[in-house]
Every structure is written in C-alpha cells, then in structure tokens.
Amino acid sequence: MLIAQISDTHVASSSKKAYGVAPTADNLKICVDNINQLDPKPDLVLLTGDITNASLREEYDLAFALLNKLDMLYFVIPGNHDDRIKTKLIFNKHCPAVSTPQNFIQYVVDDYDIRLIAMDSTTPNEAGGELCESRLAWLDGQLEKDTDKPTIIFMHHPPIKVGVIETDIDGFIGANKLGEIVKKYNNIEQIICGHVHLQTHTRCHGTVVTTAPSVGMELVLDLTLKKPPQFVIEPPSYLLHYWTPYNNLVTHTISARKTDGPYLFKEQ
Ligand SMILES: [Fe+2]
Ligand SMILES: [Fe+2]
Question: Which of 35, 39, 205, 267 is paired with 224 by a 20 to 30 Å CA distance?
Fold first, then answer.
C-alpha cells in the first residue's frame, strides 16, 4: 500500500498569495501533478489539515478544485486554519465522519492493508491541538476493534513538542491521555501530522510521530528558540508512506521540483 501525505496547503484565494508572498495554490497544483505522475500511483492521498489559510469559502472552493485533479482517492482532516463546518460541507465525500454534536471530523478508512484513523485535533479559534475525552474514547474504541492490523492515526497537530518555538507554544490538550491509549496497542505504525511546517520524526509511547513538510511554506528551523518565527518558500514537498512487501512502513520525502538527472551509478 502506498499513501501520499500532503499537509498545510494553506490555499489562499485565487487572486492572492498567503501572507502576500506564498504561492500556496500554485504549490498545491505542482504537488498534485507530481503525485499523479508517480509510478506506482499512491492508493490514496491524505491531507493533514490547514487546507486553507483563512477558512474563506473561496479558498475552500479553490482547494477543492485543485485536489479534485488527483487521480486517486483522497481524504482530508481540518487544521487550526480551517473551519470544521466548511471542511465538511465542501469535502463531504473526502471526510466521511459520523456526525457528532460538535461536528468532529473523525473517521476510519479500513479497505486497505493499513487501517487509517482520522482524528480531529482542532478547537475553533485556537491554534493549539486538543483531544477531549469524547474524541479519545472514540479512538480507543476504534483501536480496540482490531489489535493486529497495522494502523496509522492521522491528525493535524502533533501530540508532542518538537523543539521549535512557533508550534511548541501552541500546546496539545489531552496529549498525556492520548499517550495512555496509544501505549496499550502495538499495531500503531505511525501517528502522522502536519502543523509544524517541517518534517520531523519522534518516538512517542511506543510508536513514531511524524510531521510532514508544508506544501505552502516551510518554517525556518531555529533551534536557538530566540528568533521570531519565519517561513521560506521552497518547492513543495510531501511524504510517501510505503507499506512494503516486508510488512514495514517506510516514509520517503518527495520534493516536487525539477532535478538534475537521473544518472546511472557509473562514469557519465
Ligand atoms: Fe499550517
Ligand atoms: Fe496548523
């Protein structure tokens, strides 16, 4: 099974760039074209939140039009820049959540070698992550249904601090309780997230938390924790999670940019 993960597309209105400079819609188009030309093609694509930059209807419409160019199934979850109601309205087929009073967008995709569990870590008008008791109880119930099948949990916010100030200060309410649940199961291959706008991999309660690069704009890595958060505009990149014939999950980073090559490993 092959899963492409794109994240933090931050699509701005067709006439605008995010924050006045980031060509996020163009970057998403480049990414979609790149994914479509992969051989083999991914079975599906996951978009791990911050679909739009400001939750505007026109941003959702543009993101929807761009994502519908994908040749394969895709699923979405909201990020802190999104609006749950609009996400569900526009991407209804692509986030098949059972309805709840709070409109949490949580669902399971279980038609492949890996079970995918979508979690909604957002709180309206808050930058940080949260999994409340009801969302966590739902997750525990889903995990209990199959304690053998390899499983990926995907959500926008990583339930850990990754050592960069921009997103660490946002916090994650319920991270410890999530950890208590996660460590009960040994079939959670990875928890894959976005939000940080940097690729990271961290051990966490017996599994691995991965954050994907942003399609829209990358965070400047500042390990001094002293500089104001800044971003740079790079060629868009995304992750490929490959469930190999050897039954392990390997994550590759794909940069959707023009490269020099390929060359064979011999004198040219
Ligand atoms: Fe983001
Ligand atoms: Fe975010």
Answer: 205
Token pair, residue 58, equals: 């026109």
Helices and strands (DSSP H and E) totals, the chain: 6, 15
Ligand nearest to the CA of 156: 2
pLDDT tens readout for residues 214-250:
998 999 999 998 889 999 999 999 999 999 999 999 9
Long-range contacts of 225-228 (CB under 8 A, 24+ apart): 225/163, 225/164, 225/165
Ligand closest to Cα of 122 equals: 2
Summarize pLDDT for 26-83 with one digit per residue, the tens: 999 999 999 999 999 999 999 999 999 999 999 999 999 999 999 999 999 999 999 9
Range of the domain at 50: 2-255
* Alpha carbons 155 and 193: distance in angstroms, whole number: 5
| 152 located within any domain | yes
Q: Is residue 264 part of a domain?
A: no
Residue 268 lies in a domain: no
Residue 14: per-residue pLDDT: 78
Calculate how far, in angstroms, residue 205's C-alpha sits from the geometric centre of ligand 1.
25
Q: Which helix (H) or strand (E) holds 5?
A: strand 2-6
Question: CATH number of the domain that 231 lies in?
Answer: 3.60.21.10
Upper half-sphere CA count for residue 220 (Cβ side, 13 Å): 10
Structure tokens that stand for 171 in this block = 């916090």
Return the amino acid letter for 242. Y
How far does the centroid of ligand 2 lie from the alpha carbon of residue 215, in Å? 12
Percent of the chain with pLDDT over 70: 100
Residue 99 has pLDDT above 90, yes or no: no
Which ranges constitute the DSSP H helices of 76-174? 84-90, 133-145, 165-168
Prediction pTM value: 0.97
Q: Which ligand is nearest to the CA of 219?
A: 1
